[in-house]
Amino acid sequence: MKYYLHFLLFVFLLSPAFTESKINVDELKIDEDIVFENYQGEYEYVESIAQIQGIGKRLARGIRRKKEFKISLKYSIIHAVDNQEDERNRLNADILSIDADAKVDHIRNIRLILASYLQTQYQYSSEDAKTLAFFITIYNASYRGSYGYFKVKYKDIVIQHISPENAGISTKYHEWPGKTKIIIPLTDSPEKGNLSSLSTTDISDEKVVSKLREEDDRSIEEREQLTDLKEREVEQQKKEIDQSRDEISTKKDQIAEKEKEIDQKQEEIDKIEKTQKKERLQTKLDKEKEELDQEKEQVQQEEEKLAKTEEQVKEKETEIEEDKDLIEQDTLEIALEEDPEKAKELLAQKEKELKEKQEELENREESLKDIEADKQIFANKMYFLKINEYLAGGHYENDMYILDPETEDILLKSPEKNISGRKYDVISEGVIVITHKGQHTTGTYLTLLDRNTLEAKKISSAKVFWRSSVEVREDIIYVVMTDGQDYYLAAFNTDMEMIKKTQRRVYPDTFISIYKDSIYVNSERSTILIFNKADLSLKKEITEEELTKWQTENGK
């Protein structure tokens, strides 16, 4: 739908009524164009393409032996990488220096050096390396001297090698020697054969693209080439995610087997009378338990990292769609200027594609409805809540199990005995249920069970309604909480901390329906309340009168 609206907006912008309006073009420009000033005179000595590419190869081979490598006083490369996790998610970088004795005087030669370096160091194809080199030079020219930007964007290990005077590259060739540090932004996994070694997102950010769009051809060919590279990045990452998910699943199965073995050993040790042998066996088993806990923690970290990667891939896919939208818009605008008939053909083709895309989205929504019943399957395991006994007042005594959906075998039963609600959800952090603390009359609480052991990890301090629906969106949990005799819609984080609640009271047995930025619930007076998802403020109330009027007008 977003794609379709972008298209309609673009068609509107191209309409005669819009084009006749007066626009302050100067205000629309973000900055001056990036136009490199190259040497235009005669040369005493001309290096071949192979010789220039050889510079990039030497830099790449040199950096394999140490973190910094120089070619005389002409060129140098620094692999500025700090593997420690950065709270601000700042980047590492390779830094190409054009040093004092360098004679390079044309941007195409700098791009040849860069492309050769990337091809040798990270095994990018020749075409991909050329595309990346093009964008790297535009990126560095766009942020030339923007030391504040680099300090925010890059880790300290990068910043210590640059200054306000040399950060980036000037558009004037005579300012390059001794005054140029070309920043090559790296991802967390810069390695040979990884299409995601460089941060393609940063070298094609809004500022860079805005400058490229000032060119006569809007650099459409180069932008299409980078978008193609981004798509292949995503495909590679998805394959790696699937592989990692399988590996994690295998590790979990192994952990489950070890847990069974440890439980059996513990039972055998417990039967032995207190002797030195028993103490030795217990000490050995305790060590095995500690090692197993470490394995669990490592798997949990791997899962968290995988979830983060999956989120990055989703963001990349959105970025690619936006890139394509803008490229298509620019292509149509150029066609309108140069060949109106061709532009009409393109518009007709685009309209056809949009209709097909809309039909595809509608079909996908239907298929999503079909698989709704599978939402409690996570990492190839089914989390099933067995209702044991219904008690007065809508309370339950339930057990949570992990089942194998393929073999239909029981894998694990939760040790948690106080599950009183019959609504639950499964997220990467664990299984969300509603429990009491020994007695139903003392209140019920939102509880997070460990996804592997089903033991209670975290319990809310705020009380929740025992029959409440449990809905999760973007790691925020929405439930009905209790405050004395009153009920409110509340949002909890994955630490089971209540972070916000509504001011208006709600009906305790309401369904919680979420669509985009709105949450729909029943009020205690049988009206429909619509809250803003961001802060749970009341957006709208559909009154009983409105509902009755609609029924009357529509003959219902």
Notes on the protein architecture:
This protein has 14 helices and 20 strands. By secondary structure, it is an alpha+beta fold. Among the domains are: 31-215, no CATH class; 416-553, Methylamine Dehydrogenase, Chain H (7 Propeller), CATH 2.130.10.10. A hairpin with a 6-residue loop joins strand 7 (396-403) and strand 8. Mean pLDDT is 85; it is low at 1-31 and 368-373.
Secondary structure layout plus pairing:
Layout (H helix, E strand, L loop, with lengths): L1 H12 L2 H4 L5 H4 L20 H15 L4 E4 L3 E6 L11 E7 L8 H16 L3 H17 L4 H7 L2 H4 L20 E7 L13 H4 L2 H7 L7 H52 L4 H63 L1 H31 L6 E2 L2 E10 L5 E8 L6 E4 L11 E3 L2 E7 L7 E6 L6 E9 L6 E3 L2 E8 L2 E7 L5 E4 L11 E3 L2 E5 L5 E5 L5 E5 L1 H10 L3
Antiparallel strand pairs: 1-2, 2-3, 3-4, 5-6, 6-7, 7-8, 9-10, 10-11, 11-12, 13-14, 14-15, 15-16, 17-18, 18-19, 19-20
List keywords for this structure.
556 residues, alpha+beta, Methylamine Dehydrogenase, Chain H, 4-stranded antiparallel beta sheet, 44% helix, disordered N terminus
Strand tally, please? 20
Any idea what the shape is? globular
The chain-level structural class is alpha+beta
Rg computed from alpha carbons, rounded to a whole number of angstroms: 31 Å
CA(first)-CA(last) distance = 31 Å
Helical content stands at: 40-55%
Poorly predicted tracts of residues: 1-31, 368-373
Largest sheet: 4 strands, antiparallel
Percent of residues in β-strands: 15-25%
Distinct helical segment count: 14
- The residue-averaged pLDDT reads 85
Strand order, biggest sheet?
1-2-3-4
